[in-house]
Amino acid sequence: MEVKTSLLDNMIGVGDMVLLEPLNEDSFIVNLRNRFDHNEIYTYIGSVVISMNPYRSLPIYTPQKVEEYRNRNFYELSPHIYALADEAYRSLRDQDKDQCILITGESGAGKTEASKLVMSYVAAVCGKGQEVNKVKEQLLQSNPVLEAFGNAKTMRNDNSSRFGKYMDIEFDFKGDPLGGVISNYLLEKSRVCKQPRGERNFHIFYQLLSGASDDTLMKLKLDRDFSKYNYLSLDSANVNGLDDAASFRTVRNAMQIVGFMEAEVQSVLELVAAVLKLGNIEFKPESRVNGFDESRVKDKNDLKEMCELLGIEQSVLERAFSYRTVEAKMEKMSTTLNVAQAYYARDALAKNLYSRLFSWLVTRINESIKAQAKTRHKVMGVLDIYGFEIFEDNSFEQFIINYCNEKLQQIFIELTLREEQEEYIREDIEWTNIEYFNNAIICDLIENNQNGILAMLDEECLRPGTVTDDTFLDKLNTICAEHQHFESRLNKNSKFLTDHSLPHSCFRIQHYAGKVLYRVEGFVDKNNDLLYRDLSQAMYKATHSLMRQLFPEGNPAKVNLKRPPTAGFQFKASVGVLMKNLQTKNPNYIRCIKPNDKKVAHIFTDSLVCHQVRYLGLVENVRVRRAGYAFRQPYESCLERYKMLCKKTWPHWRGPARDGVEVLLTDCSVPTEEFAYGRSKIFIRNPRTLFTLEERRRACLEDLATLIQKIYRGWKSRTHFLLLKKSQVVVAAWYRRYAQQNKYQKIKSATLVMQSFVRGWKARNILRQLKYEKRCKEAVTTIAAYWHGTQVRREYRKFFRANAGKKIYDFTIQRIMQKYFLGLKTTTMSPMDNTWPAKPYGFLEGAHTQLRRIFHLWRCKKYRGQFTEEKKAVYEEKLEASEIFKDKKALYPSSVSQPFKGDYLEIQKNPKYQKLNSAMEEKVLLADLVNKINRANGKGSPRLFLLTKSNFVLADQKTGQVKASVPLPDLASVSVSTQSDGFFALKLKEGSASASKGDFLLSSEHLIEIITKLHRIGTTAADRDQINIDISDEFLVQFKQDKVCVKFIQGGPKNGNSAACKRKNNRLLEVSVPSP
Ligand SMILES: Nc1ncnc2c1ncn2[C@@H]1O[C@H](COP(=O)(O)OP(=O)(O)O)[C@@H](O)[C@H]1O
Ligand SMILES: [Mg+2]
């Protein structure tokens, strides 16, 4: 359930001054003080918020507070600036009404802080999103920049705004901020050149010098030391609680966020530096022939540096400080300036330079923050303008400022009254005329176009002839004499002639907020705000990027002899525009009050507050508000709040709220003249009536509270009793059950005990019996076992030792053998492997060698078992070769490792031998290239040698033509030497068919294979005899006719590898074989 609260709850004093009873200045101040002492710095006058400066940070601006006040009714919670901001924002967003927030109060009263609070509240509650946040950030960050350039420490405020500021924040239909426009009013530029004691120049000068890097300062030709600059007051250069260096960083950062380019920031700083330099330029008199003094620049160094910063030709500026061109009737004349005039010119330049820079900054910020979208937007304006100023010494500035406040008061009165009136009409209530002081007459005294003070000042300024402040005062004295708010010593009105509080050179105005004495000195000059044309032209010529924009009147092409508008005129115009603007908007007022002059917390100076309350016209304000009906409230909330006062409306009223309120008020017998029924609100004339209602409500609430308490207590006790009763039954039931259970358990356990005793006793008896029997049996067994043991031991004792030795021996031998056999396991299965473990024991020698042999035979058998038929044949051939040649011919060992290939010519495949191959009738067993030895010279000629099962063939190596084919049965024997040569002779059987050709003496590299194959064919053929193989170093060969002896000798030194055959004589061929 939502708790309905009201401003009237938990009030300290009264939260709304309209309800103050009795209403007078004293009670007003006592109420303010009472609230201020309880940290309640905000108080309402209807919808106006009075804000007391607490001079310390209070925990009332937290995000939680923002949430608390968000979307709440204005009078629902205790007074707060957030309530006002929320009201303004919601009525802007939901009712499409442009708003303005007018913040007034004297310097240091907290106007600027209040404006920031309003802006931050609106920023916190309005829409979110990247684009929107950027806009918000830029709007908020414009503050630090303007504060650095437009604020200064004054006696009244360490961060006093020295310019008026009006900022329009623009929103779209959803209430998201789009951008803003800032207008500035009258910067107090005299501060640039001179500051009152204890005050400072604008913050930026100190911030630049303390915060800029050494590098920047060097570029700007500046020195960190404040004391080097004439324009900076030294007595309060450092202010407690102000960190200029940190502020400088904040300002630079803010400028960046707002959108200043780096180059622009640099230009701005250059101008600030130039102002400082300008202040250091000094002049000395130089006598002229005509007796007048002419001013000259004393030390040209500062002038030079300044000219460098701004890009001005030094001589031009120097001249502008010594001469002045006067133009009259198209004629130009040059007059000299004396030292005082030169200083005046210098200061005028500095002031203009700075104030124009400030205006440029505002324009530049506006460029950045202006709303992009062209759609229609709603506007919330925040006005933070200097408050009413009454000093000891009031001059032109105070006059202007107070005029502005006069205008604001005017609009305040108009708008409050108008609003009041509008509400009465809206609510259909009869309008009662309200008496109040209208300050329009004072506004008229100042701004009237014919005889207003400003108009006369302008007239004086523009008038030819000698014009002084005194002539201006004279004029005032004659023209305003009759005005009841104007006072002067020389007035026609004789009552002031003796008024000593009114000096001769002053006039006094009775402002709505009090009398202010203005010293007339300087009015004319300040209104003129003259800058010699030579200076503006010099500035226009500068190469610095900003100067041309700041001094457009210096453009020689646009020489304008007309005077520029005066300061007063300009101000009046801009205030006029502002007022028009404000009148179109729904106003919301924040009136700031300063509790003390010491800028400290907790002190409330009555006289000071009283003064402010008076000149802000606050009591007046309450009176106006109360003149008709002091208090008004929608019917719903009124009924909700007071319904308990009448039985008919309590606790619920069913029907329209208005009827409910009527019933209620009649029932309470409130006099009928005390209230009026509007359309949606009830209007109560007197606060007293409201307080009576409140008092009755309080009493009634007490009764109600008692009633509620009574019923609640009764209900609580009864429920408690019922609960106790119910619990008692439960407890009793549980207890009974528990007791019975206990009793049963006891009986049960007693029975068990008895049972167990009896059973135990019986069991023990049986056990005893059984134990006895068992022991008897055991005794018998033991005795028998012992007896048997003795018998057996007696019998076997004699065998025991004799058998042990053999068993140990057997066992040992067995172990040794086992180990030995396991040791043999590592031997490989290759027949070539000759290794065999060494014998471990002498006694195993025989077995060891036998085992080796048996194992070898076995593995050879295994090896042979793997052979295929072909491989077997190959080995058989090899075996045969071994039988024939082993140990008989020296060539043999080298042939062992060469496999017998048979067909070395690849006769089947080689196309060269195709014909030869086809001539062969049987399978060729061997085909090789051999040398046929010529008997005549012992040289060999190559032949193809082919062997089949039935014959051998010699063929030409080149042509493959068969030279000789000899059937094997015709072959008688084969002769070879014992040596390592390849010669062999094939001897034919005498008388056979082939014998006519004679024997063949051949040599071959595969001699062993050829002979073996020949021999093998002989062995396998059944129809033939064995072929004889003679192995000797000398044998005969039958060549056709002759027998020739072939003799083999061991050759001497080797010449090549092969054996050489030489014919020795007709009957002898000698073959020399190289010794191996
Ligand atoms: N609501 C506030 N809470 C805390 N301090 C405040 C508040 N309002 C003002 N102050 C203090 O008072 C000083 C002056 O306020 P400022 O707004 O600058 O005055 P004004 O603009 O009216 O001259 C601030 O610097 C701040 O220290
Ligand atoms: Mg301020």
From TrEMBL:
Species per Swiss-Prot/TrEMBL record: Oncorhynchus mykiss (Rainbow trout)
Keywords: Actin-binding, ATP-binding, Calmodulin-binding, Isopeptide bond, Motor protein, Myosin, Nucleotide-binding, Phosphoprotein, Repeat, Ubl conjugation
A GO CC term attached to the entry: plasma membrane
Localization per Swiss-Prot or TrEMBL: Cytoplasm, Cell cortex
Molecular function (Gene Ontology), one example: actin filament binding
Reported function: Motor protein that may participate in process critical to neuronal development and function such as cell migration, neurite outgrowth and vesicular transport.
Listed Gene3D superfamilies: 1.10.10.820, 1.20.5.190, 1.20.58.530, 6.20.240.20, Kinesin motor domain, Myosin VI head, motor domain, U50 subdomain
Record InterPro entries: IQ_motif_EF-hand-BS, Kinesin_motor_dom_sf, Myosin_head_motor_dom-like, Myosin_TH1, MYSc_Myo1, P-loop_NTPase
Residues holding ATP: 105-112
UniProt domain TH1: residue ranges: 889-1075
Domain (Myosin motor): residue spans on this chain: 12-698
Assigned protein family: Belongs to the TRAFAC class myosin-kinesin ATPase superfamily. Myosin family.
Spans annotated as Actin-binding: 575-597
Protein name (record): Unconventional myosin-Ib
One of the GO BP terms on file: actin filament organization
Domain of life, source organism: Eukaryota
